[in-house]
Each structure stands twice: as structure tokens, then as C-alpha cells.
Write a structure and sequence with these properties.
This protein has 1 helix and 8 strands; from the N terminus they run ββββββββα.
Length: 119
């Protein structure tokens, strides 16, 4: 699957107000995350390295002990096992995350609910 039309991948609502689409390859995963105003990805950590870019909106992003209000165009890198959280501020936000290695939990969800908008 070298080319992906994100509009053809059905989003999964994994948290209230948070919809994601997570195509992946052998060693990395993309996560296209749409967050409604006020939606929260609560504090969590995982063994995967995560990098991302805020494409639209503003989020309050906590990585470890540091909290920042980030705007569209901001990029970030979250080391493995580092607690982090995101809150959508002042309108919807869209984040493109990259995980390495592939998050097995997201891959399982993606494979289970891989339907497209044609369904």
C-alpha cells in the first residue's frame, strides 16, 4: 500500500472527540489524528518512539515535565517510555504522528476495522 488516500480510510473514535486513521508498514506507523475542541488524549506512555506535526489548530502538549501551547506547523519528538498528553485548544486540531516500531495495539484496531468509506 504505497499510496494512501486518507479520506478512503474510515476513522476510529478511540477516545471521546478523537478520531484516528493508522496505516502502517513494516517498521513505522502513521497516525492521522483529528481532535474536536476540548478533546483530550490523557497522559500515557509507550515503548515506541513518536514524532509528529500539528497540521491544523492548537493543542496543549505535555511531554515529560514540559507543557507547551503548540500551533499548526509545530513538530515534536517523544522518546520511548516518556509520559505525554494532548488537549485540543480553541477549535479542532489535526495531528500527524509517526510511530516506530509499529504500535501493535493500533495495528490490531486498524486491521479489525480497516473498512473504507465505501462500506
Amino acid at each position: 500500500m504505497p499510496f494512501i488516500d486518507i479520506t478512503e480510510v474510515k476513522p476510529l473514535e478511540v477516545l471521546p472527540g478523537c478520531r484516528m486513521r493508522t496505516p502502517y508498514g513494516e517498521n513505522m506507523m502513521l497516525s492521522y489524528l483529528e481532535m474536536e475542541d476540548g478533546a483530550v488524549v490523557p497522559m500515557h506512555d509507550h515503548p515506541h518512539e513518536q514524532a509528529g506535526m500539528l497540521l491544523e489548530g492548537q493543542i496543549e502538549l505535555t511531554i515529560g515535565d514540559e507543557v507547551r501551547l503548540v500551533k499548526a506547523g509545530a513538530m515534536f519528538i517523544i522518546p520511548p517510555n516518556t509520559p505525554h498528553q494532548a488537549i485540543a485548544i480553541s477549535g479542532p486540531a489535526v495531528v500527524l504522528d509517526v510511530f516506530s516500531p509499529v504500535r501493535e495495539d493500533y495495528a490490531e484496531l486498524y486491521n479489525k476495522y480497516i473498512p473504507t468509506n465505501e462500506d
